[in-house]
Amino acid sequence: MAVKTCTALAAAVLLTLGGSAAPGPTPALPPPRIGVGAGVLVDATTGQVLWAQHAYRQMDPASTTKIMTAYLVIRAGGLERTVAVSRRAAGTPGSRMHLAANDRYTLMDLLRGLLLPSGNDAAVALAEAESGSVPAFVAEMNRAARALGAYQTHFVNPHGLTERGHYSSAYDLALIARAALGLPVFQHLVSTPEDRVTELRRGARRVLHNSNRLLETFPAVDGVKTGTTDAAGPCLVASATRHGTQLIAVVLHAPHRWQAAARLLRWGFAAWHRVTWLTPGRPVAHVAVTGGARGAVAVIPRSPLSTLVPHGAVDAARFVTTSAAPLAAPVRRGAVVGRVTVVVNGTPVGSRILVAAASVERRWPARPLPWPWPVFGR
Q1: Residues 63, 306, 323, 351: which is the catalytic one?
Q2: Does any domain span residue 373?
Q3: CA 301 from chain center: how many Å?
Q4: CB 119 within 8 Å of CB 95
Q5: Domain of 73?
Q6: 63 labelled catalytic
Q7: Active site residue 66
Q8: In a shared domain, residues 299 and 247
């Protein structure tokens, strides 16, 4: 996937109050047809949705739930802390790390057991270690989901075993995965095919294997999490990175999850490329200034903007700016003066705040000579 910088502003800058809302850019290469109950493909950097199918439908997430569990534990820190495994954690059914009551592990090793073999026992042990009880930890999970904008999500447990009221959506799982992938520890763990853990009471070491087969079969894949229950069917949240661009594919109730996720990721890299539209320091327009020492000031974006666009779509792009033109002097460097929106094929793909690139002082009228004028010489 190539990375491009739009240097000619893609089109003339238009001073207007808005842009049209038409269907988004359509790739020349159509997306693959895959048999899934729900799915989505997003850009991990921006959250931009590239493909979606029933992406907001509430579904049973199975063990993809553990993405949120790991996110909260890693964000809290102190991963070298040692915890004792409770009887409740050790007795959790389903996929297991094979913990025994009174075993002692670091939080980091329990995270390995959570994310590689998808240990339900590790999920309960982590929840109890972080919040004192599973219900308290689940409450934290739901607060975090709302904070991330995952409004079609409600958790009842930290592992994903089927329970009434426990659900998420493909889009929400992509949001949660995107946040978790921003944590280097999480990114490292979910990209690891196998790792070792140590039970500290006995000093016993063993190897854990990752349940994500794509780590072995798709060279660009670097995560994230599998999930399977009778109710949810096979599920997968997968990420892959090429040329600095990371994509996240979510497939739920997907009988052929490995093939479905791989086809989505391959299509994403083949059909889309990244364009840098706005760069701080590069002027977008010049805005008139009344009463100033200069008649205009350059305006620049306060932060960069890059998005993925279909191949060939850059030629159909334009910039739409809104500003308080003309500005009245004095204008201070860095003052907010408007907003610029990038429109591709009639659809806004992103916007940024515009600020003044320089200060413009007020123009003062010339002072007249005193009267009567002094007479010099004779």
Answers
A1: 63
A2: no
A3: 21
A4: yes
A5: 38-255
A6: yes
A7: yes
A8: no
